[in-house]
Structure formats: structure tokens, C-alpha cells
Amino acid sequence: MLTERYLQIFVALADEQHFGDAARVIGITQPPLSQGLRRLEALVGAKLFERGPGRVELTPAGKALLPHARRALNAIDEFHHAASAQDPEGVEIRLGLAPEVPAAVGAAVAAACSAAVRGSRVSVISAPTSSLVQQVSAGRLGLAAVLHPAVLDGLEAGPVTLMPTSALVPTALYPDDGAALPLGKLQGLPIAVRPRAEAPAARDLFLDTLALHRPGGGTVIVTDERAGLAMAAAGQAIVVTPEPSLAAAGVGRHPLIDDPLPVRLRLVWPQSRTPNALPAEVIAQLSRALETP
Predict the structure, then answer these.
(1) What phi and psi, each to the nearest 5 degrees, are found at residue 112?
(2) What percent of the chain is modeled with pLDDT above 90?
(3) pLDDT at 206
(4) Enclosing domain of residue 62
(5) 7: which of 37, 85, 107, 206 is 20 to 30 A away, CA to CA?
(6) Cβ neighbours of residue 129 under 8 Å, at least 6 residues apart?
């Protein structure tokens, strides 16, 4: 049976002319892409691509069928959007937020979702960046605000927004006077960090910057910022955060000079030919909401 996935494989491979690149665009690995292409060629009874060193090219049959595949995918997209419009409760926008997204910024993005798509219902989950990317790729989320950098598995992405951070430092280490401090001066305690597996590329960038400014300063793994704040209140750690509302007795907030550890955020969403993709003008509105101070 001819399926939407087979058509996606056909179009992606025609566009990318490379198996690995096409697999990343769709959000799958190369073996199922190759298997899908073989099944599609068996269904249509024609060879669609010529395999060469490092790239593939459309055969005459592939060139003839490609416009039909594009039209079929567009028709499927229109069907999905029309079906969503028939939901008596309105279109549902499933939004994911990384834990590092400040509360006010996450609220602004959710509100922008509701405002941008009239009559929509917005559902929100919070999960680590690596999980959110997988859920958007699988179609379980319509979009997500994630840490940058990250491996996006063929997803589209908006501009990177830099969120300034402050250091939450036990007052036993520095007085709570709000003075800006250089990162290199934050010695004597480890800096709390979340597990690397949650966002490997972003965590590596964070740790590399720490190592550059405070070699040998050390880190301690925490499950979330609340745990980090508790450790800071106990005089056991320093927390670097973009969240302005995070506070506790015995902990002072200090801006970091030159903001060496900004939290980098961006929106990710499925490619436009994916059924649950949002219109480009809606994505633009949501990207602006992510910049809310």
C-alpha cells in the first residue's frame, strides 16, 4: 500500500540527493529510509533513483512521478488541517518547553500560540531538550522551545535567542549586594548543572565555557533548578540561571560580567510538509514571543 511515509522518503531523497541527509530531514535513520524506497519502487514498478558515489539522481521515471508525489503530500497536509478544524474543541497546539525556559517566557510563547491560531487549545509539557526534539520529530508535539545547540534530526528551527543569566551565590561566599561578578571569581564552590544527557551539545558548551573561565572550579549534578537553589541555600553550590524569580534566604543574585553563560533558546517544529506543521506566519509570531524579556 502506498503510504505518506513512502512519499516523504521519495520527496526528501529527491531534494537532498543523499540518503543520510534525506533521513535526517524526515527524522529517521538511513536503514528504514532505504527499505522504504525499495518498497516504493516495488509498488510503482519502476526504479526512481540512480545510486552513485556519494549521491543519488532521479531516473526518468522518478522525474515524471516527483510532481505527483509533491501534490499528494500537499493534499495530505490540507486534509490534516481541515480535519483539525472540524474538532469541536478547536485545533490543539502541543507545545514543549525545556526546563531552562524562564517561566515568563514560556507563558508568553503559550499565550502567543493561543492568540495566533484562533479557537485553538494549547497543551504544554516540560521535558529535557533531547526528549522534546524526539517528540517533535515523532509528531507528538507541534513545536518546542529547546536549548541551542542541539541535534535537530531534520526539524526546522527559528533564530537563537540569548537569555542573560545571573549567579545565585551563598551569602557566606559573597555579600548579597547585587554586584556584578566575573565568572572567574566564582571560586570555592561547584556550579550546579543538570545531567548532560538532557541536552548534550548545550551542556558541553556550558562546561567548556566554565572550564575556560574557572579551570578546576568543579561542578555538581542536580536534577533541576530547585535542587540547585536548595544546595546554594545550604552553602554547597552556585547556580547559574536565567530565571529572575528563583530566590532563597541566604542566597544573593549577581549578574555575570560580559554574560559568558547565556541560555540559548530556539523554537523547533516539523518541516512544512509534515501534517502537524504550523503555518510560517504563526511560527514567526511565536519566535518573537520567545524573545520576551
Answers:
(1) -65, -35
(2) 59
(3) 96
(4) 4-85
(5) 85
(6) 98, 146, 147, 150, 198, 199, 202
